[in-house]
């Protein structure tokens, strides 16, 4: 199994994600407790062709991603709570906190098919601004949350590698770094 440039094996859990009501406050709480940082924030994350449970959606989220070692942590704040989503449905069932594990995919279509064959519906689909596909498979009937499948393209790997490299020997300066979304 190939090890990705940011230290996780291809096909393994690469990220743990949490839904939060206030991303700025959450970063400040998570940073010292998870030895995680710096945080990279993308406001109004562009998710193209977004589909929630098979229907088009106008999801508006802000993401914060930070590393502790080779593990990525993601905080997600939905900016339009009136729009039904994978985030609002979990928050309404369980409240704030853990949402999903993310797994890197060398063969995105095969991995989606594998989870569907196990009886897990695709709860969210979209294409990130770097051109990589992502799908949330609803594994909440057998796991504590969903599984996000992330297509690991060269651009996706470079993005995560950049954030992981910034966390190595990080001295605590510039703890929150706002990124511009990639051009669609």
Topology record:
Blueprint: E1 13-19, H1 23-34, E2 39-42, E3 47-52, E4 55-56, E5 61-68, E6 71-78, H2 86-94, E7 97-105, H3 108-117, E8 122-128, E9 133-137, E10 146-151, H4 154-167, E11 176-179
Parallel strand pairs: 1-6, 2-11, 7-10
Antiparallel strand pairs: 1-7, 2-5, 3-4, 3-8, 5-6, 8-9, 9-10
Walk me through what this model shows.
With 184 residues, the protein is an alpha+beta fold. The chain has a single domain, classed as 2,3-Dihydroxybiphenyl 1,2-Dioxygenase, domain 1. The chain is 24% helix and 36% strand. It is built from 4 helices and 11 strands; from the N terminus they run βαβββββαβαβββαβ. The chain has an 11-stranded mixed beta sheet, with helices on both faces. A hairpin with a 2-residue loop joins β5 and β6. The chain starts with 12 loop residues before the first strand and ends in a 5-residue tail after the last strand.
């Amino acid at each position: 199994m190939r090890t990705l440039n940011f230290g996780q094996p291809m096909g393994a859990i690469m990220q743990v994600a949490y839904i939060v009501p206030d991303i700025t406050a959450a970063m400040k709480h998570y940073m010292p407790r998870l030895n995680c940082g710096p945080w990279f924030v993308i406001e109004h994350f562009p998710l193209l062709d977004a589909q929630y449970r098979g229907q088009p959606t106008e999801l508006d989220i802000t993401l914060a991603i930070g590393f502790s070692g080779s593990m990525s942590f993601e905080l997600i704040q939905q900016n339009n709570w009136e729009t039904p989503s994978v985030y609002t449905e979990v928050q309404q069932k369980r409240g704030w906190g853990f949402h999903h594990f993310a797994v890197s995919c060398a063969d995105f279509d095969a991995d989606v098919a594998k989870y569907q064959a196990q009886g897990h519906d695709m709860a969210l689909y979209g294409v990130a601004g770097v051109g990589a596909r992502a799908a949330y498979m609803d594994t909440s009937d057998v796991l504590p949350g969903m599984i996000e499948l992330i297509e690991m393209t060269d651009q996706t790997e470079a993005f995560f590698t950049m954030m992981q490299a910034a966390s190595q020997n990080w001295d605590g300066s510039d703890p929150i770094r706002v990124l511009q979304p990639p051009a669609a």
